[in-house]
Amino acid sequence: MRILQPPGWPRPRGYANGIAARGELVFVAGMIGWDADGVFHSDDIADQVRQTLLNIVAVLAEAGAGPAHIVRMTWYVTDVDAYVRAYREIGVAFREIIGGFGAAMTAVEVSRLVEPDAKVEIEVTAVIPDSPPPEQE
């Protein structure tokens, strides 16, 4: 994976302008902040982001991938002001669960999500690198 950073551009904070990667593509559908039983434990956006990120990691694991393989994230939030107010808590959860790498990210406010209690929905694209060629003896 290679971060795309045009010369002279300021480095974005918390994401990358672009990513170049080669390997097996993994697409994670929009995940929301409920648990494996479809139960929301909080209506707080930061709490829902934390659970959403845990859900993403669980789906990635099914493909043999992990957070470091994420190249793109699209965040849909129902209240951008609440999202901005929760930056600190969201950042803590992101670093704990996903790590400190920079994926290409987009965040947009939407009027609502299909699940009425959801405050955030996140889609992910990951790339598992091609295996290196076997060493020749």
From TrEMBL:
SUPFAM superfamilies: YjgF-like (SSF55298). Pfam families: Ribonuc_L-PSP. CDD domains: YjgF_YER057c_UK114_family. InterPro entries: RutC-like_sf, YjgF/YER057c/UK114. This is RidA family protein. It comes from Nocardia colli. The lineage of its organism: Bacteria, Bacillati, Actinomycetota, Actinomycetes, Mycobacteriales.
